Amino acid sequence: MTAEAYLESRRSAIEPELSRRLAEALRPVPPRLAEAMRYGVLGGGKRLRPALVLAAAEAVGHAPAPPSAFQFGGALELVHCYSLIHDDLPAMDDDDLRRGRPTVHRAFDEAAAILAGDALLTEAFVWTASVPNLGAALTRELAVAAGASGMVGGQALDIEATGRGAIPADAVERIHEGKTSALFAAAAAGGALCGGATDGWVERLRSYGRALGLAFQAADDLLDVEGDPAARGKRSGGDAELSKATLVASLGVEGTRARAHANAEAACDAVAGLDGAEGEILRALALYAAGRSR
Ligand code: GRG
Q: pLDDT per residue over 219-268, tens digit each?
């Protein structure tokens, strides 16, 4: 199966589960806040992080992926959606378009976007904590990945580096490790936990997710330069406009492409011991992340 076919098949399983869990969570929430949260999560998104959770659970021998993988994948997607909502705010990247629609602060207002992001982040921990037997481990996994030493830390470094011109590629990748790879690493490690993997495989899957995340973000830097805004559902050229520290600014287009592929190869190496269709899918997903067109 190709990576694209795999992602499509898992996305069609993830979407109704995510929608059902979110509808249940939003029942006691004030209507306008609930509407902003729903808008920020549903109606778009490739659902790559939950798909990676399922792929990791399947790869360590639990196919089909168990309900815990859907619950953890959904929680990761809530955190990812919160990060996009906040990343689009005027104080951050100041974007009007996301997933082909007005950003949450444009469709609602800034206060609603801030609160919707806060509430999605918090709800994610209700979901992880509710996973039978693995609640504490998965909550810790997500909290570390999302927090100051992970995604938020990467975003802070990204903002500090903005407007200061090109920085060495390794320094750019330290930013990518936090703002992007941390969630992918948690997806793969958490998926392995849901699939009942032993420690060694959890850590190998974590390395896989980390390298895949670097390939994914390198591809994102490329797409901002040469991607099709209609396919991406967001504007292109924003990185150069804001003078962001990207791999393209440090290495150029071809250098960035080579880095994306080197990271995908590193991801494949991390799971080299996994035979069969499940191992093949992990490797196909890493190569897809490096060469994606949206
Ligand atoms: C705490 C105020 C505050 C803000 C947090 C942490 C943060 C803002 C932002 C995270 C940084 C970020 C948005 C990184 C970009 C990662 C990335 C390439 C996102 C795009 O992911 P896709 O392509 O998006 O998977 P879809 O729309 O398909 O889900």
A: 999 999 998 998 888 888 888 888 999 999 999 999 999 999 999 999 99
Cβ of 14 closer than 6 Å to ligand 1, yes or no, is: no
Quote the number of domains for the chain: 1
Is the pLDDT at 199 greater than 90, yes or no?
Answer: no
Dist. CA 38 → ligand 1 center (Å): 17
> With a 6 A CB cut-off, is 220 part of the ligand 1 pocket?
yes
Beta-ladder partners of 97: 102
Q: How far is the CA of 278 from the centre of ligand 1 (A)?
A: 27
Q: Is 217 in the pocket of ligand 1 (CB under 6 A)?
A: yes
Is the Cβ atom of 179 under 6 angstroms away from ligand 1? yes
Structural domain containing residue 84: 3-291
Mutate to test the pocket of ligand 1, among 76, 83, 242 (most ligand atoms within 8 A of CB): 83
Q: Is 77's C-beta closer than 6 angstroms to any atom of ligand 1?
A: no
What is the CATH number for 208?
Answer: 1.10.600.10
pTM above 0.85, yes or no: yes
